[in-house]
Design goal:
Low-confidence stretches: none
Strand content: 25-35%
CATH architecture of the largest domain: 3-Layer(aba) Sandwich
CATH superfamily of the largest domain: ANL, N-terminal domain
Number of domains: 2
CATH class of the largest domain: Alpha Beta
Helix content: 25-40%
Number of helices: 12
Bound molecules: zinc ion
Radius of gyration: 23 Å
Largest sheet: 9 strands, mixed
Length: 415
């Protein structure tokens, strides 16, 4: 999807303004002799920005307005190293609330609803974003923050909450509690709005069944305002995103080149009107695709497919991109298969082809050969590759306290 004329002008204005400032990106653009853009080609030559830049600019190096215009900061913690700080102007805060209110509206939520907010408040963008959007919409906000399940459920019953906002894992916990306590007929929940972290179909169905509500996935990241830059509509055909505030391109994470609409790749986001910390071509490392064509709902906002995984986790066999998350989803469908597995990929030189071996723990009560056949068929039908499946008894594969390394790829280790 190419920049339209308005977006092109907005990006050009952002660059010209950044150059005038002493900010991190202003310096980079000056050094590279970038003065503005006049076409899509110019835009695609702009350097990418990344979380590493934001760490280098810590704490406030990316600030692109005078101090007196900054009204708030948010921070995202990385898995390693320094956190990242994002300064917001009053307009940035307001723009974010407008986008968030639009998300609620797209989910069919109105100012008559009562929205219980369970994501955390503080340095990160979760709780406060959900609240600002709710107030902008004019709905009643119940600002709970996380934890204290007894109190959450009491408020939910006493105040007749109609919308729950949460992380998917906390929503699952709440739904199980409601089920166990047998209070389902005392609650009034109609909809749930959840962060678009990857979550399994199984989890989704459990929440839906326990609560009998519609689920909406909201997208966003702290570096680009926060949650609220996109959400799915009632047709569940991907997430509409707000192209009057952000421009999204999908790139091949290896080459950095844009890919056509419909093709999968890394989401790269450009803010169009952000003041405090504008970001151009920010690499999210989230993998998805732009869904071509118009949504049956008639909204003109373009759509992103659900987030399939992180580019860092992606692996490719026989030309097919795969993620550990897909393997996890598939194993959940097989009776007796545990969630423990590993994938080994190597190149068979004699046949000049890649081979993929999936080792899966299987419970002793089921037939190993049948389980293996089922897993192989699921790989074939859902992903489009047919690996060799090796079932092993539960407890065989190594456990690690850290994040377990699931994929070992020998094709690149010998090069
Ligand atoms: Zn739609």
């Amino acid at each position: 999807m190419k920049l339209n004329d308005t977006q092109l002008r907005q990006v050009d204005a952002q660059i010209k303004r950044l150059i005038q400032t002493d900010s991190y990106y202003g310096k980079i653009y000056r050094e590279k002799g970038i003065e503005g853009i006049g076409s899509q080609e110019d835009f695609e030559k702009l350097p990418f920005s990344s979380k590493d830049d934001l760490r280098n600019a810590y704490p406030l190096g990316i600030q692109a307005v005078p101090d007196e215009e900054v009204v708030r900061i948010h921070s995202s913690s990385g898995t390693t190293g320094k956190p990242v700080i994002i300064p917001y102007t009053a307009k940035d805060v307001d723009d974010w609330a407008i986008m968030f209110a639009r998300c609620y509206e797209t989910a069919g939520i109105t100012n008559k609803d009562r929205i219980q907010i369970t994501p955390g408040y503080g340095l990160w963008t979760a709780g406060i974003g959900f609240q600002a959007g709710c107030e902008k919409l004019g709905a009643m906000c119940i600002p709970m923050g996380p934890g204290n399940t007894d109190k959450q459920l009491q408020m939910m019953v006493d105040l007749q909450t109609t919308v729950i906002t949460a992380t998917s894992s906390y929503a699952l916990l709440l739904s199980e509690e409601i089920n166990q306590r047998g209070i389902k007929n005392e609650i009034c929940l109609k909809k749930g709005v959840f962060g678009s972290e990857r979550w399994s179909e199984k989890m989704r169905n459990t929440i839906k069944e326990n609560l009998g509500i519609e689920l909406y996935d909201i997208y966003g990241l702290t570096e680009i305002y926060g949650p609220g830059i996109g959400i799915n509509c009632e047709h569940e055909t991907g997430m509409h995103y707000w192209d009057d505030y952000i421009y999204i391109e999908i790139i091949d994470p290896k080459t950095g080149r844009s890919v056509p609409d419909g093709e999968e790749g890394e989401i790269v986001i450009t803010t169009l009107v952000k003041e405090g910390a504008p970001l151009l071509r920010f690499r999210t490392h989230d993998i998805s695709r732009i869904i071509p064509g118009e949504c049956p709902c008639g909204r003109k906002y373009p759509r992103l497919d659900i987030i399939k995984g992180r580019s860092d986790d992606m692996f490719k066999v026989h030309g097919v991109n795969m993620f550990p998350s897909q393997v996890e989803d598939l194993l959940q469908l097989v009776d007796g298969a545990s969630s423990e597995y590993n994938v080994t990929i190597a190149h068979d030189d004699s046949k000049n082809k890649d081979i993929m071996i999936v080792t899966v723990e299987v419970e002793g009560r089921v037939d190993f050969e049948e389980a293996a056949a089922k897993i192989r068929n699921l790989f074939k039908s859902r992903i489009g590759v047919t690996p060799k499946i090796t079932p092993v008894p539960v407890g065989t594969l190594p456990r690690s306290e850290k994040k377990t390394k699931r994929v070992t790829d020998y094709r690149f280790e010998n090069q």
